[in-house]
Design a protein that fits this description.
Layout: H1 2-9, E1 19-20, E2 23-29, H2 31-59, H3 72-104, H4 111-131, H5 147-169, H6 178-197, E3 200-204, E4 207-210, H7 214-232, H8 235-249, H9 256-270, H10 285-297, H11 299-311, H12 317-320, H13 324-346, H14 349-355, H15 359-388, H16 396-429, H17 442-480, E5 486-491, H18 507-510, H19 513-537, H20 553-564, H21 579-584, H22 620-628, H23 630-633, H24 644-647, H25 655-664, H26 671-675, H27 677-693, H28 704-714, H29 723-727
Antiparallel strand pairs: 1-2, 2-5, 3-4
Pathway: Energy metabolism; oxidative phosphorylation
Domain Cytochrome c: 553-716
Subcellular location: Cell membrane
Length: 728
């Protein structure tokens, strides 16, 4: 046996797989883990810097820097993509590539696939970094990247799955630990979500239209959006928690049975909850009710996972005082518990009526992102780097300082945003004793929360400063050791299953990855199918309205500019059936009004007023001045100016192609209209410029501002409601 130990102590990749006395020696690939770790830190800093920038942009419009590539509307999706897919995405790969090898007692299936996964993912992130500031976006939240990048994401995700399942197939440990179940469910569900939501028809290389329209597009998008949070920000991190927490605490998982219940109930229930993002919208009531019911049910499996994590620390709480890794993990799991209690609460209709479209939702999301994802990622990095470099962490004191800076950052971020959210929700609904809106000017509600936006920005600075301390600490740690790129290990060809699990009813599936994959896929498909089939097949879910017509060619170009500038990040287009909203905006929105909207633009946050009934409310000149200098029309406005819309021209070469694609998707454009699309466009544009000229405003008909005005003036004008009908 001494010879075998000597072999392990001196790694030699040429001897991988050598059988010595029934024990195989092999090598774990630590280099790929290190690479993903570095990428995690790099993109984390980039995403957080952009997040801090946009936080201050909402407090002071001058921080938009006066050019079209750095406005809040353009770079807000860059922040979300960088944090979710770059920072958290690389952290997932880092944790999975480290833990999967050790749980399977096998090197990753293919080093080439590992490298392809790494570099492919980084190139996708770079593509997002280039395209989103250019305004190349679909506008669909967490799915803004255009179709060529969607295809690249699919290919890289397949590479990851191939590598993962290949490793599981050649494992030396027959029993699949609970973390692997979550990895399998993550891969399968993200693949389904991405493919279904990314159904789109290309117009040009960087422009497409969603295959779904209006209500149906909204249902698919929030089925995707909610479950991107569930199966990208939650399930893989739960798998990582089940691996790294017991390792860091040197304690077994509290309850194996609870982990089984946690896994299956979570993946089955989560997939149904998407419609709770669309309460009081034009989505059919039955779908909204399904979302509410399953969202409330979600608290049970979510808290089951939190309790399983915290109780794993029984007998190790004394270590929490000294060990920064455990500190980060405890707060991460607690933040997960808070966010998964708040989510079901926010899905209750009476709470949602106050909270939705406000900064309360922003606070809720960031408790999860900064606390759960951020802190668990930091814990993994602090735990991994000393082991990858065979040394000690450079400074526990610095790591503890990072912990307290990060915790303060979360508090400075979340508390002001909760306050802002409560303020907004209540001010929007406040009536006077005479029965009129107390704050009829939406801007009054915005000005009240500007100080909270400054405090939120300070919270971001505190959180980010802790990350810079971590970078220094990890760098010094790496410098004090040497990367063990190929870590030697030994294991029998197949390790017999652990005795305590023998005969357990669940053990048969834990040893069979394909069965696990099949049943996990069935569990996640049921909810989506139950929601989608009636919504798409039964026409009464989206009643048509005869007066609703397709957009004119000029309005369509204006709508695409609205998408390009990211206006949907601050403005909704969904008037809910509340008296406070119909008094402020006009008649509530109907499902049939959106049948030609590819993509839907209902929005999810009101930093500015809802725009669904803005058409005809103001003259063309008001929109002209408002886009050129928002404060000239709305003193104190935090909206940036858009001077480039007055200088740049609409790309007329795309008009006909856009109409043809939309006709393929069912929008009833006549062939003759398509053939003369640009002539019709210029005819309507000249009418608008002639009207502007009456007020001394000279503007070229082909300029982008004219198309934007045309679109804004169209919004909500397809239906006419008589006064007596409103009263009823």
């Amino acid at each position: 046996m001494s010879t075998n130990v000597a072999t392990v102590l001196e790694p030699n990749p040429k001897r991988v797989g050598q059988d010595t006395g029934g024990i195989e020696s092999f090598f774990y690939d630590n280099k790929i883990v290190r690479d993903f770790g570095i990428a995690t830190v790099f993109w984390g800093v980039a995403g957080m810097i952009i997040g801090t920038l946009i936080a201050f942009q909402l407090a002071n419009p001058d921080v938009n820097m006066g050019n079209q590539y750095t406005t809040f509307g353009r770079i807000r999706p860059l922040h979300t993509n960088a944090v979710i897919f770059a920072f958290v995405g690389n952290a997932i790969f880092m944790g999975v590539y480290y833990s999967l090898q050790r749980l399977c007692k096998s090197r990753m299936y293919s080093d080439k696939l590992s490298k392809l996964n790494f570099w492919g993912w980084q190139l996708i992130i770079v593509a997002a970094l280039i395209t989103l500031p250019l305004g190349i976006t679909t506008s669909k939240e967490y799915a803004e990247l255009e179709w060529p990048i969607d295809i690249a994401i699919t290919l890289v995700w397949v590479v990851f799955g191939w590598n993962m399942f290949g490793t599981i197939a050649k494992r030396r440990e027959k029993h699949m630990y609970v973390a692997i179940w979550f990895y399998i469910a993550t891969f399968l569900t993200v693949a389904v979500l991405h493919i279904v939501n990314s159904y789109e028809l290309p117009v040009t290389f960087w422009k497409s239209y969603s295959g779904y329209a209006g209500v149906q597009d909204a249902l698919v998008q929030w089925w995707y959006g909610h479950n991107a949070v569930a199966f990208f920000l939650t399930t893989p991190f739960l798998g990582l928690m089940y691996y790294f927490l017991p390792k860091a605490a040197n304690r077994p998982v509290y309850s194996y049975r609870l982990s089984i219940i946690h896994f299956w109930s979570l993946i089955f229930i989560y997939i149904w909850a998407g419609p709770h993002h669309l309460l009081y919208t034009s989505l059919p009531d039955w779908a909204q009710s399904l979302g509410v019911v399953f969202s409330v049910m979600l608290i049970a499996p979510s808290w089951g996972g939190m309790i399983n994590g915290l109780l794993t620390l029984r007998g190790a709480w004394d270590k929490v005082r000294e060990e920064p890794v455990l500190k980060f993990m405890v707060v991460a799991i607690t933040a997960y518990g808070m966010a998964t209690f708040e989510g079901p609460m926010l899905s209750l209709k009476n709470v949602n009526a106050i909270a939705h479209f406000t900064d309360w939702i922003v606070a809720h999301v960031h408790v999860g992102a900064l606390g759960w994802n951020g802190f668990l990622t930091f814990a993994m990095l602090y735990w991994l780097f000393p082991r990858l470099y065979k040394t000690q962490l450079h400074s526990k004191k610095l790591a503890n300082t990072h912990f307290w800076l990060g915790t303060l950052g979360i508090l400075f971020y979340a508390i002001p945003m909760y306050w802002a959210g409560f303020t907004q929700g209540l001010m929007w609904k406040q009536f006077t004793a005479e029965g009129t809106l107390q704050y009829s000017n939406f801007l009054e509600t915005v000005l009240q929360i500007v100080p909270m936006y400054y405090l939120r920005g300070i919270g971001g600075v505190l959180y980010l400063s802790g990350v810079f301390l971590m970078i220094y600490n990890l760098y010094k740690t790496a410098k004090s050791g040497a990367l063990e790129a190929n870590e030697a290990a030994i294991a029998p060809p197949v390790v017999k299953e652990v005795s305590h699990n023998a005969g357990h009813w669940h053990s048969w599936i834990e040893k069979r990855p394909m069965q696990m994959a099949v049943w996990a896929t069935v569990a996640i498909l049921i909810g989506g199918l139950v929601e989608f089939i009636p919504a798409f097949v039964i026409k009464s879910n989206v009643p048509t309205i005869a007066s609703v017509k397709p957009y004119t060619s000029l309005e369509l170009q204006g709508r695409d500019l609205y998408i390009k500038e990211g206006c949907v990040n601050c403005h909704t287009q969904m008037v809910r059936p509340f008296r406070s909203e119909t008094e402020r905006y006009g008649e509530y929105s109907k499902a049939g009004e959106f049948v030609y909207d590819h993509n839907f633009l209902w929005g999810s946050k009101r930093t500015g007023p809802d725009l669904h009934r803005v058409g005809g409310k103001y003259p063309h000149s008001w929109h002209y001045h408002h886009m050129l200098d928002p404060t000239s029309m709305s003193p104190g406005s935090i909206m940036p100016a858009y001077p480039w819309l007055f200088e740049q021209d609409v790309d007329l070469t795309t008009t006909e192609a856009k109409l043809k694609v939309l006709k393929q998707l069912g929008v009833p454009y006549e062939d003759e209209y398509i053939a003369n699309a640009n002539q019709e466009l210029m005819k309507q544009a000249r009418e608008i410029t002639a009207d502007l000229a009456k007020e001394g405003l000279e503007v070229r008909p082909e300029s982008e501002i004219v198309a934007m005005i045309a679109y804004l003036q169209r919004l909500g004008t397809d239906i006419k409601v008589k006064a007596e009908e409103v009263e009823e």
